[in-house]
């Protein structure tokens, strides 16, 4: 079937959107498998903190390298695709080697290599989303994340050999699509974005748009890291329960994000703070649930964390979509930013925990969440007041500009009437308009590109024709003409 004109462009845009969604889904599924690492707990003596430290540490290090290279415009997509794909495939081979031999070394090597693969390939897919129309990139982000979670859950139920094989196919498919879409042109924006606020509603500095979501993500990353360790240490819960509950909470969060996008009109503050209220409420009141308290806390915290992640991803794609290198660099930074918080939270929980129930850690995170809730409420109130004041100032300035333009137009008409009534030349009329505005000889000289003596000569002739003897008398004459015009009108 052949397409022509707008139909051909629309067809290509839809095809590109589908391919980006499929490719990101493939890679993000593999990333989820490594982040939740349910296969790790089958190995005797495995330490999730060591695994998480290596995975997130190498991810952050790789993201830092991508960010620094992007600032110099030296990120090479072909090299990034090759190194990232090989790293992920090597990490899967390490997982396969670790399973029968119970080799913790192979498991930790797999974590490190997976961190490198994610740090290189995830920013490339954010870059591909940036080439789509703004609304398409947001929906691709949400839908791909939603589809990835259940696929990852299904893969975790397979034997290790099948898990590795499935993930290998997904990595290869993702890499092939990255290459296919490498020459993808930017799609034209055909309608206002439903994802992001207009320029009048957002701060002019792009980084200010990212500051609040990133701060929210990092705070919840700390809380999530603490609560995940607490949940795994609870006698009534297992590590698998915690991981399964976290992924289930992530699916719920992505669903909420997708439902909110068409109705929120880019006002993500309401979504972020609604999530915070849910998390804080659970922290305060859910101890009455008894043994499942820790699991429910993990779910609630992960819901808020996942929503904040999606918001930060959508914002970074929109803010830097016009610059491919910056988009890759900042995407790498934003994707890696919350990972140290998770590791640090888990480490803190292990250090401050008291007894097998981690009661002290629970009370610590509850007090921290309440303090954060109060601080966020104060910050939101101040931000809303500041934005209201800025909007009032903009309206005032616009009214002043309109008044000045209207006054100048009326004054120009009065000058033209005086010019016609007294037989002024074109140059004399121009000088009359400037003098009526209160301009001096130097300004007239620069504006009309004439000499100072020429200005004096024309001014003298103008005064004689209008029968005035000074600039103030001339201004009074023009103002009197304005008053007569308004009376006659």
UniProtKB/TrEMBL annotation:
InterPro entries: MFS_trans_sf (IPR036259), Sig_transdc_resp-reg_C-effctor (IPR016032), Tscrpt_reg_LuxR_C (IPR000792), WH-like_DNA-bd_sf (IPR036388). Residues 382-409 form a coiled coil. Signal peptide: none annotated. Residues 417-482 form the HTH luxR-type domain. Keywords: Coiled coil, DNA-binding, Membrane, Transcription, Transcription regulation, Transmembrane, Transmembrane helix. Pfam families: GerE. The chain crosses the membrane at residues 12-36, 48-69, 81-99, 105-126, 138-155, 161-181, 214-232, 244-263, 270-289, 295-316, 328-353, 359-381. The keyword Mitochondrion does not apply. This is LuxR C-terminal-related transcriptional regulator. It comes from Gordonibacter faecis.
């Amino acid at each position: 079937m052949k397409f022509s004109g707008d139909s051909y462009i629309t067809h290509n845009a839809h095809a590109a959107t589908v391919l980006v969604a499929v490719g990101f889904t493939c890679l993000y599924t593999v990333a989820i498998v490594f982040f939740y690492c349910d296969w790790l707990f089958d190995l005797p003596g495995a330490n999730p903190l060591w695994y998480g430290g290596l995975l997130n540490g190498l991810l952050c290090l790789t993201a830092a390298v991508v960010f620094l290279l992007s600032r110099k415009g030296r990120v090479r997509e072909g090299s990034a695709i090759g190194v990232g794909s090989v790293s992920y495939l090597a990490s899967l081979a390490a997982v396969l080697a670790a399973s029968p031999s119970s080799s913790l070394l192979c498991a930790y090597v797999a974590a490190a290599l997976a961190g490198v693969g994610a740090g290189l390939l995830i920013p490339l897919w954010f870059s591909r989303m940036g080439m789509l129309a703004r609304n398409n990139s947001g929906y691709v982000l949400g839908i791909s994340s939603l589809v990835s979670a259940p696929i990852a859950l299904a893969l975790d139920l397979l034997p290790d050999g099948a898990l590795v094989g499935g993930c290998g196919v997904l990595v290869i498919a993702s890499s092939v699509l990255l290459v296919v879409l490498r020459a993808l042109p930017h799609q034209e924006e055909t309608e206002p974005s439903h994802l992001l606020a207009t320029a009048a509603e957002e701060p002019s500095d792009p980084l200010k748009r990212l500051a609040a979501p990133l701060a929210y993500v990092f705070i919840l990353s700390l809380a999530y890291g603490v609560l995940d360790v607490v949940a795994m240490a609870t006698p009534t819960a297992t590590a698998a329960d915690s991981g399964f509950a976290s992924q289930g909470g992530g699916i719920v969060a992505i669903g909420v994000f997708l439902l909110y996008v068409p109705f929120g009109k880019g006002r993500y503050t309401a979504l972020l703070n609604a999530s915070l209220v849910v998390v804080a409420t659970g922290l305060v009141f859910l101890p009455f649930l008894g043994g499942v308290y820790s699991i429910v806390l993990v779910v609630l915290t992960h819901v808020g964390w996942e929503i904040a992640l999606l918001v930060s991803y959508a914002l970074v794609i929109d803010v830097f979509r016009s610059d491919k290198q910056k988009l890759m660099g900042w995407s790498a930074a934003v994707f890696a930013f919350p990972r140290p918080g998770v590791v640090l939270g888990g480490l803190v929980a292990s250090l401050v925990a008291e007894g097998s129930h981690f009661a002290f850690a629970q009370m610590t995170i509850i007090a921290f969440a309440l303090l954060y809730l109060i601080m966020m409420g104060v910050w939101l109130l101040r931000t809303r007041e500041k934005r209201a004041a800025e909007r009032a100032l903009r309206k005032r300035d616009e009214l002043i500009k309109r008044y000045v333009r209207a006054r100048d137009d009326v004054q120009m008409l009065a000058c033209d009437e005086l010019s016609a009534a007294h037989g002024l030349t074109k140059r004399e009329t121009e000088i009359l308009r400037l003098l009526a505005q209160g301009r001096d000889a130097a300004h007239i000289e620069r504006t009309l590109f004439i000499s100072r003596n020429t200005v004096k000569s024309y001014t003298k002739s103008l005064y004689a024709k209008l029968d005035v003897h000074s600039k103030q008398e001339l201004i009074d004459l023009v103002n009197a003409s304005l008053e007569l015009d308004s009376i006659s009108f």
